[in-house]
User: Fold these one by one.
Assistant:
Number 1:
Amino acid sequence: MAGEIQRQNSHIYDYIGGNGYDREDQSLRRRRVSSPASDQNYPHFNWDSTPEDEDEDSDGGPKRDIRCIPLPMHLRRTIREVQQMRSPAVSRDVSWRGRQMLRKLRNKCKEFLYFFSLWRKSVQMIGGNFGGGVQSYFVFLRFLVVLNFVSFFLIAGFVLIPSVVFRSVATNSTDILAVDNNLNGTNRTAKCKVYEVNQTTEIYQYLLDFLSGTGFMEYSYLFYGYYNITEMPNRDSYNIPLAYILTAVFYFAFCLICIITRMGSAARVAVATGSSTGVSSYSMIVFTGWDYGCLGDRATKLKQKNILYQLQVDLEEESRKRHEADLSTSKKVILYSLRVLMTFLSLGFIGGAFYGIYVATQFSQETTDKRKIVQLIIQYLPSMVITAGNFVVPLLCDKLALVEQYSPSTTIILALLRSVFLRLVSLAVLLSTLWSRITCYPEQLKGNCTLCEYNYNEFQCWETRVGQEMYKLTMFDLLITVAVFLLVEFPRRLVVDNCSCKPVQWVGRQEFVVPSNVLGLVYGQTVVWVGALFCPLLPAINTLKFVILFYCKKITLFQNCRPALRTFRSTTSTFFFLVVLLFGWGLATVVLIYSLSEIRPSYGCGPFHSSNTMWSTVPGSFHNLSNVTQEFLFFVGSQAFSIPLFALSIVMMCYVIALATVYGRSIALLKAQLKLESRDKQFLIKQIESLSRQAHIPTHRAGVQD
Amino acid sequence: MGTTASQLSKESLSEYQELTFLTKQEILLAHKRFTELLEKHEKDQIDARVPMGKIITLPELKSNPFKERICRVFSTSEQKDGSLTFEDFLDLLSAFSDSATLEIKSHYAFRIFDFDDDGTLDCADLEKLVNCLTGETNDAKLSSTEMKQLISNILEESDIDKDGTVNLSEFQHVISRSPDFVSSFKIVL
């Protein structure tokens, strides 16, 4: 019986293995191959196995996925028939039926989603022609488009549509602004409630107002100031202020969940591979480096050049590291002091950029000018300074990196961190300047805030003003992208293609630099998050902006760009993009919390004009809930619930950490055992050879196989 | 879909769906592309074989440096000439599809890289592999010292039992640590 199985198995091996089994020489490999039990290389199907003892079989349960057996299709078909013949009762098993239905359902869902996948063909073509790094940028952009689109539906459903409905229905709504008993002192209320909007008069004014959100756009659904509480006849009407706040909070939570879910698979991979994310080892490059989705000769040659470059750089880095370890002490000291100096210089550049943004924001808020064009420029000044800073400072830091002489991977990571820092903190400086003006933080403005608790003289409706600032940032970003696309990238390609003088060719066609483009996306999305509370339609505008951006970038990529020589790894970069997006989300959350709880809402506009803070609406309506719900929520928030929950999470975390340590240790043990086994095998082979030589028996294939 | 759909019966379609990782649309598309490669008189045969020379004219395989190896690995012909039937073609697409497991992909990747079909990757296999990856016809290729250094580094990293070759388990161990492999080992029509 055993011999029969062996013969059957070796038949499969011969069938699959080709010529390797016909050689007559005495190599170690052949010995390994000829004993079926220890063969690890080719699929071993146990024809003899019965369903009962397949639970102990390492191949898995009785319905091990037939597709996972790496044999040709007609063999798989035979195996399936054998399995079905042997266990006909299993096919009526309820759990198996359930599993089949589940699999069919999953397949149907996949087919359904296949049609809905946005821009699938474009992204595939980009990946085939330009590699995984560039493709990950477009996949990230697509994710943001979908996120903004779905958030728009959220906001529209809970805030926009009810407002529209109430405005049109409530014909006899007395203007709530006039009926307000909560404020003491009619002087203050009368003065603070005045909210005047400049009307658009001339034709060209429409364009300027469209770009800056003033005039006809200011008192519209676009901004916070338009949403009012309209009193409805019955008491249990839709509470717009509550809906507004809860929608904003839920929008943030929803975005967080989406990002974390998307990070989920990438994080699992990044954690599993551990330290090897930064280090690309040689076997990794050689075994996994080829992208089989490459289309066309150009992309293939590019990929080959890429891999060659990577290998050469790694080999060179290794030899340089060996060399550097032999550097004299004095050279080391010089190198390190240079690095420290460059770090300070780069921090200095970044600090200079921040100061410039601060000054520009102050200037922009303080000055007004009669001429409309100059006024527009002044209004856009902070955005312009931020864009200029984000353009100039990374260039300077790149030059610094040449002096620092870190290894290439460290250089890239440092450059990225500096850019992230620059972008997000420059936005934070802009926001804090704005907020300090609203709350009269600088000394000279203290007088303005005494009357209405916020800077009434400058901001009659400060929320709309903040919304306008964010709107301006978004529009400016879009305009700059389109302008650069039309006026810089196309002409550059035309010049490079038609003019063959040296300096032009040295500059060359531009490269699609993924990291800076991704940071631009993160910046745009952070601006939208900050502004979403004050400008509810901003996610919709952002969706349109990102769709336009997708097509612009795609056209530029195919027409104007030359492929980059040094590419970004795709999976680790996806994880990195999402981490940076989380930083932006964190910044926006801080802003949201501060605005909701610290600043007094405007008297003159919006749904919260009668509350002390925006958040106080929630506890107010809390008391309208039923008693049972109140008790339940109190219990959930109390210590009796949260402390045990906290303790339980700590216990779970300790358990998971312990499990991971045990797995790591068993992997190391198994590796050591493998080494030992192979050494044993080699020792035994040598023994057999020496013994057989002693006994003068020629070693032959037949003699070995019993 | 006209005549091609009638050539692929419903039972075979559902059977292929069960036996491979492909979805219904992918199988139909594969059938369409495969029949385009057949000669007129072969279009009605069940087990028609397409020679390797025609398979490698497919745009997805045309510039792949491993195209001959891929055809040979998936071919079930007696003469080992790399010709594929429709079922071999489906096997190929299934292994390179989106939903194939890491196990299947690494198994076939190993066989593709095993240029001499002996079940392990030795120095000669590794050298041929590196030349395919970097394009040995270019002027810029690795010098022989660099190549030696590279191969010894690879063996040092992946050869666990130190026998001078990389076998399937060691290969799969390296692959399992790579985050990009599953997404790059993909061919979609």
Number 2:
Amino acid sequence: MNLPQIVKAEMPLASIQHLSFRVRQARYALPIELVREIIEYGQITTVPMMPAFIHGVINLRGNVVPVLDLAARFGFELTEPGKRTCIVIIELELDDQQQRIGLVVDAVDAVLDIDSSEVEPAPPFGAGIRTDFIAGMARDERGFTIILDVRRVLSLDDIRQLSLAQQAS
Amino acid sequence: MLNGDQWSQLLQGFIEEASDLIKQAEEYLLQLDQTPDDEDAINGLFRAMHTLKGSAGLFSLTPLVSFTHHLESLLMAVRDGQRTLTPPLVSLMLRCLDEVASMVSLIDVDSGELPVDETHQNELLAALAEHSGQAVEQIPATQVAAPSACPNRGRLEKCANCDADGAWHISLRFHPDLFRNGFDPAAFIRYLSRLGDILHLDVIDASLPSFSEMDPESCYLGLEIDLCTDASKAEIEEVFEFIHDFSTLRILPPNSALEDYLQLIHELPETDQRVGRILVASGLLTEHELEQGLALQAQASEQKPQLGSVLVEEGMVAPQAVNAALAKQQSAREKRSLESSQIRVAAHKLDELINLVGELVISAAGAQLRAQSHGDAGCVETTQTVNQHVELIREAALKLRMIEIGDTFNRFHRVVRDVSQQLGKNIRLEIRGADTELDKSVIDKLADPLTHLVRNAIDHGIESAEDRLAAGKPAEGQLQLNAYHESGQIVIEVADDGRGLNTERIRQKAIDRGLIDPQANLAEHDIHALIFAAGFSTADNVSDLSGRGVGMDVVRSVIDGLRGSIEIDSVLGAGCTFRIRLPLTLAIIDGFLISLGEEYFVVPLDMVTECLEMDAGQLGDSAYGYLNLRGKPLPCISLAAHFDLPASRSKRRNIVVVNQGRQQAGLVVDNLHGELQTVIKPLGLLFQHLQGIGGSTILGNGQVALILDIPSLFRHLQNHVEASAGDLRQPRMDISGF
């Protein structure tokens, strides 16, 4: 009786590859299908009158790509670029348009196979960042990796309101 | 066989062609509305409908074919003079064209199907039929060949009455499918009779089968016609243009050589004797000539088979016919060559080219930078030459996308006609500067806001005829669309001579809506600008045309999106002008590079009027202030302070004076770096609400520089500064009030 159900439940659970990285001391991960490339932290042009976490724009082989500071988005201080600071370029659809965005992270760790059976829902508080940014917590031998809900982190409405507030001040 | 993709590509081509044809047809119709007798327009209209029907047939779009067929029949009747185009008929035809356009838009490109709801079409067709019925009663068919008023009928000599040398001989053999394609040969003969007198007309029924074998839908007939006219051969051919595919046409000019007639007799499918007798009967040949000729031909064909064709070459066409035909052909060829010198190119290919040119501009700038830092004089010189060429290429590439605004303007003839009729107003549309060129992507986006402004002007701006007369104005209202260049920008004006904006009512409405403070002391100009606020409408009664208050803010946002601006000039009782200023292009501009500390910015060069040096102490540390520029106060803004960038440490600073419409301001910057070809890169969604910055570009060294959007910067400054200065102003007003 239960057999077909179990099979059905496990079918979509095939492990998904994630890119894990560090922001401050915590470990985070993103589905690797979103990631286009990882580049060295380099010349960033500041865009004025934007919220602090919008670092600016970079020239990615002739395309102008906005760069977000994940730490600042999570509410920490702006990143002081170090030796291992990187920009992770992701591509996703926002408002029906393909958009490339760079995320500043402190270090890139590895590519993880995360089995969805090992993903726990986010705790209501205590993860260090806004709960709605968290898609799930992946458990492994070293502890938990926070899987980010990129759409929430990059919510245009959110960013719009913040930038309007910034311009009005 | 074609595969699905190719088929839908073809269909896509048809849809484009059809839209063009519909547009043409509409223009012709509107032209006929003004001058109902314009034959060129009638023919053009007919041709457009005919082509549309034919192409639709290729794709088996049956509903479209049958609908256009009705229009075509009606036009055929108009063409041969049985019916005239009255204004109500023109209106009806316009509605039918709309129906055709909507049918074309319904075509499913993938499946090639055309799902149609036929009720609307049937209504229109019923209206057409009703109309045709009336028209027939009103206008008796008078044009049917009045048999030869010419006394020289049937003679070979020069016809004294009608300037023509003898008669043309036309032999026409119809294709069996003629009727199935919806043509009535009689209509063509009626039309032919407008060219001149039909002296003689014989019906050839030789191929008519026995009654039991006859298919009533097939055409078995042929015609032998003698026509007395001074028209050229080409003109006669044109009469039968539309049945070209369904008939065989042979035309002999007057006074052709005997051999030509013999050749004709020989070529026609009927027996030589029969055709010969017709020619004799019509007086083109004598009995004797015919006999002699036939004998001669028999002889000739035995001895020298080519003789006939040589003779044809020598004497085929009479000299006066040659001249006329040549002149006619020449003009036709010129027209065609003008048409064929245009090439249709897919827009995305142009975009690709312009993108590549953009990359080229950036890399060329990089190369020049390298060369300069290297210091090799030869290298610097070469890169400079390269850069000059790149600049030329850039200009040429951008010109490719420029199209005239006239097409967009002309569309408004229809809008004005429809809307003014609906409202019972008499309005004339005047168009100026139709040849002004503008980037295609800009023109496409401009159509909607322009329509809105035009509708508004007709609905709210221009008064009814009685009101106009009472106000001492001519009863006919005037609407003007105007386009011209001004300091590197395109200006488009929508002007009416109506009642103008009612400043007091706008002010009252704005207070009611809570948009402004009741005590605010606004200049007239500022009050007018309030109509661009969202949800603002002053029309007391909402009509289905305008007045819902959802338009003007949309107009504003579209213009903003095009990096343009809009202003209003209104005089109460005398009229109102909306003036839209737009950049010439959206892709690459001439920029002026400045820097603030480490950050680079580009100011569109068109906006820059001059640069001044500034003493460090002049403005102090404040972000905003003013300077004395040749006796006038020049408002200044320190960009670094405005953008919250680190304060400048450099002692010598510069002021870039920028100009936008009537406003002028100085931007305080650190360094000037001169002109720069600026490839505009969009900043993307994250920055779409950023005011004062319109895009970005990549400098030769790979760094990204931001492009200032001066109009939006000005607007932002005004709101921003007024908001913060409002607190200061308010008490002062109170005091003066007491």
